[in-house]
Specification:
The chain has a domain of 46 residues. The chain has 2 helices and no strands. The chain starts with 16 loop residues before the first helix and ends in a 15-residue tail after the last helix. 0% of the residues are buried.
Length: 77
């Protein structure tokens, strides 16, 4: 039996497209929240320290081909 909120009264008993879309959106929102929560909990500080240490040790090797400072404005006049 159709009610007043049914967008498709001839298809009573079936969910409307709006209702189905709302439910799918809530499922995706729940999955996304769960993934972000799990990702935040499993992150370790040790990985960040190793990455920072590696980037600092690589800096010395890359400085051979790069200038240490920008050219002054006197060079462009």
């Amino acid at each position: 039996m159709p009610d007043s909120t049914d967008l498709f009264p001839r298809n009573s008993g079936m969910d409307s497209f709006l209702d189905i879309g709302w439910r799918i959106g809530l499922v995706f929102l729940g999955i996304g929240g769960l993934v972000l929560f799990i990702q935040r909990r499993t992150g370790t500080v040790l990985e960040d320290k190793e990455w920072n240490h590696q980037s600092m040790s690589d800096e010395g090797m890359e400085q051979f081909n790069r200038p240490s400072m920008a050219p002054s404005l006197d060079n462009f006049e």
